[in-house]
Amino acid sequence: MNTDTENIDLYVEYWNAANYLAAAQFYLKENPLLRVPLKPEHLKPRIRGHWGSAPGLNLIYVQLNRLIQKTKAQFLFITGPGHCSSAILANLYLEGTYTEFYPEVSQDIDGLTLFCRQFSSPGGVPSHLSAMTPGSIHEGGELGYSLLHAFGAAFDHPQLIVAAVVSDGEAETGPLAASWQSINFLNPLRDGAVLPIFHVNDGKLSGPTIFGRMEDKDIAMFFSGLGYDPLFVCGDDPQKVHADLFKALDQSYLAIRQIQAEAKEKGLKAKPKWPMIVLRTPDGWTGPKEVDGVRIEGTYRSHRSPLMDARENPDHLKILESWLKSYRPEKLFDEKGKLREDLLALAPKGHLRMGASPYANGGSLLVDLALPDFTEYRVPVKQPGTSVSEPTHVLGKYIRDVIRRNPKNFRIFCPDETDSNRLSAVFEVTSRCFVSKIFPDDDYLSPDGRVMEILSEHCCQGWLEGYLFSGRHGLLVSYEAFAMILDSMASQHAKWLKLYREIPWRKPVASLNYLLSSHVWRQEYDGYTHQGPGFIDTLINKKGNVIRIYLPADTNTLLAVMDHCLRSRNYINLVIAEKQPSLDWLDMDEARAHCARGASTWLWASNDNGKPDIVLGCAGDVPTLETVAASWLLQKYFPELKVRVVNVVDLMILSPPAYHPHGIDEQNFINLFTTSQPVLFAFHGYPRMIHDLIHGRPNPARFHVRGYQEEGTTTTSFDMVVLNKISRYNLAIDAIKYALKSVPHLRTKGEELIGFFERKIVEHSTFVRTHLDDMPEIKNWTWSNPITS
């Protein structure tokens, strides 16, 4: 590549154009090219955004454009620094992709004015990247996930190189610290490559960064120890830094291609030493040197937008005008306001432009999964509640065959819990991915494995998000309690999806599917710290057109639900299921119909003949077991009381349709729960969630919800439900109390039975602490005709 001064000067000019537009977006609502002297009325009343990292990002983008022009390689650009979208937007505008997606932002003065006005303004675009940004699959609003998204996008895309800019501030987060380990899972024979560009400018909002104060030799040792081969580019002289980055990118590209070629020629012998670049430039580079006698450039003071009060302060207005004019916009843009033709020629064309990368609009690359017929994995159910199976163990066979049929676009992401959650059948067709040392006595480890296990929930979700947004499918499996580690990531993903669905040029992507097992009601040895159903609460408050929550009651309903989730698009699907042996309630035909409706009256478990005295609702496998057992107890000992059992598998059907698209209409809700009879609802999670969902339904005060009450310990299955007052005995007691208000003539018998069930709870407590196990009548209970049993 020719690195003569003339070419370097052209790239510096292009960079100046990008820097100018990055800064202009912060301040200007009129006069976008300073064709007349700058006045206060040309400035926005609200100045928002972060300037500090923008010049470094522009430098990287410009030099990646040069590398793409030279190599014609497919690059995806991921930006870690938050609130720096002005830099990326500037480059998208200059390369023409922004105008292609948003024609109203034209390549002239009018378009440029709109381009500046819309930044961080009402009705415009945010100061961080978003789903509205062409070329982006990563927001950066919450730091820590850029490198994870980059590796997720590179998995199974062998032709792709993902340039991931990581800021030194972002590198202080826990998720990013774990992200560097991702090279232990990147296989050069089947995956693309990730080129981390670690941007060190020693600036956060109000102080220095840890890496910013480290010596280069210490940074080199840190990354070398992790398995990278770092190249350093440092300085503040534009020509020299451009030339040095020019060379470093060339060297990195050649190293990547050599690693890939050697792997194809000789096989993968050891974990490669992948290149990375450490770019050290001043924070706020090329911005104001000092303001009011205080140094700005090269300090944290430039990290946000300097000169925030330029509209009110005449001296600061002069500094702003001088700063913007230092880029010489009159030399960069023609009379119509378009970038000079010789500079335009520096940008790639068509899909090679990073803003137009098809990998950033993954739905355009998405191929439907070849799914097996889930009904072939059914468990036979001759009579409800008499046979036993392990739901996730059976599901594992179905997922095994999903992997078998889709060997290049489906992966499982799991924090070391695939076996624990009973999905072991997948290891019949694949292994755990591991691109490092493998010993002869290791189980199911291979560089080709499609099960991604690392003890970091953040890594698992970050990889999966990058994998999905670049056009593939996956499943995240976790213990329920530890899913709450992902609360913030799930919220970010839900918000991205909400916007994503509203943008016409964004093609639908595969849904993010969670399977949570080892759940709150089955933690016999992990104990209180592993008992937490709060992930439901996180998702239930997100936009209804994005969120789906499923609580299958048994194996066949789990199979039906998971098949549906793997076929869906643009959702977050949460599925919570039992891994322990549990009773089967529905045969496959019944399960399919039940899941299609979202909720059903289980006639076989009811005796109300259409006129219940009490409705027993339930959602979740263990609450369903206790509800059905409570109905059995009531029918056996109190047949005069008319009981209806309603099982809910799709939690969001409880919500009125105005709040969630799955909400059933009022008549169907009444058909299930009546308009006036008391409802005792046993719920997998925290009780208040059901009360929130049914707000707006007929007479919601008649709903009495039982669920997890933050009581628990290392104990038996049944003791857990007793401690939280959701056991069959507790439900039977409460059902009688609520029903007696409408059938007072049964009060005497009802009160006698309340006493009987209260004594059973005491008997259980004594038994479990004496024998360290549940009573046989609990452990061995199955459904039978309560009248004759």
From TrEMBL:
The entry's keywords: Lyase, Thiamine pyrophosphate
Domain Xylulose 5-phosphate/Fructose 6-phosphate phosphoketolase N-terminal: 6-364
Entry cofactors: thiamine diphosphate
InterPro entries per record: THDP-binding, Transketo_C/PFOR_II, Xul5P/Fru6P_PKetolase, Xul5P/Fru6P_PKetolase_C, Xul5P/Fru6P_PKetolase_CS, Xul5P/Fru6P_PKetolase_N
UniProt record, GO biological process: carbohydrate metabolic process
Signal peptide: none
Gene3D superfamilies listed in its UniProt record: 3.40.50.920, 3.40.50.970
Transit peptide listed as a keyword: no
UniProt-listed PROSITE patterns: PHOSPHOKETOLASE_1
Family: Belongs to the XFP family.
Protein name per the record: Phosphoketolase
Organism of derivation: Methylacidiphilum caldifontis
